[in-house]
Amino acid sequence: MYIYKQMTIYDLKQAVFNDLENPMSFLTTKGFEDSTPTKIRNFGGFYFYNDNTEWFVTTPPAMVLKADVNTFKNGDHVLVLSIDDDLWESSIREKLVAALKLAHPQMEQSALPVDDIVKHCYFPKFKKLEIRSKYTAKRSKVLQYVNMYNKDTEITGGCNLSTGCKISCSIRFILSETKHENGHIDTGFRVDLGSGIRVHQMAGVPDAIKRPWDWSEVNFDNLAMPIYNSVRVKTPAMRVASVGVHSIQVDTKPEFKAAIDEFHKRAGVEAWDQQIMTSPNKPIASGDVAVATVVPNRNNQRIEWSVESIHTSRKKRRKT
């Protein structure tokens, strides 16, 4: 009985999984793959497959023009991307023509020459690519998130896309035929989200690093945070020791001084001189107490800290 059970499980595995050429590939690619359509399935529209996996295409790095992803506002996840890559556009257009020819025998217009259908088919505008995907399946109230990654790290729910972000997107194409009352049929491809979104750079600025000033996520080669191109640091209360033309000299807590010294050490530059660059339009006086958000700028073998925002107040005098 035991031998029979083992053989049954083995036979089942062989029957179910022997058609997958690389069944573990998703663990390394996260589904961001490029392939060629070889099969079709019709679910009210033609969906394309490469062997037994869905046919996905990965866009080149693109600038976000509009984003409404994982906000669950209007029924759809929406992305509009600016893609300036003529070679990619030409390659995808050729694959879409091949996909249409693959579907041609099962189309309503199968009696027409396939080249005539291609001529009148709607192809997406690749340079300003609009991607739409329903976030609820039919007869379901479960909200479907779009998976988001930074390199191989999943960041779904950890950031909100906005205009100016730089991303790559896994997409799929669906071919549809719309028949009108007069018998005319419109043919076209629409673009749907595939395996997810890979975020290369976010628009805007990262959150400021606060006490205890952990630098583990800082890239000291370019002084940037993951997904961003800058670093912001929140200071504790500091006493303004002196005021220069475009700078202030500060006395700060040993804990913060040690943290900034560690920052400079990791960046391979000179130690901090406790100077912060400021705007000449901001009235600051010696003896003021200041709390600031500062950003580092590399200057040869030095790092200068510049004020992004600063709040100052007069130190209260002790009453006698």
Search tags:
single chain, 320 residues, alpha+beta, OB fold (Dihydrolipoamide Acetyltransferase, E2P), 2 domains, 11-stranded mixed beta sheet, 5-stranded mixed beta barrel, 5 helices, 17 strands, disordered N terminus
Gist of the model:
The protein has five helices and 17 strands. The protein is α+β, with helices and mostly antiparallel strands.
Could you characterize the architecture of this molecule?
- With 320 residues, the protein is α+β, with helices and mostly antiparallel strands.
- It has 2 domains: 25-201, OB fold (Dihydrolipoamide Acetyltransferase, E2P) (Beta Barrel); 233-314, OB fold (Dihydrolipoamide Acetyltransferase, E2P) (Beta Barrel).
- The protein has helices spanning 2-17, 26-29, 86-103, 114-120, 254-267, and strands spanning 39-42, 46-50, 53-54, 57-58, 62-68, 76-82, 128-134, 148-150, 153-154, 166-179, 185-201, 233-234, 238-243, 247-251, 275-277, 288-299, 302-314.
- The chain is elongated and about 85 Å long.
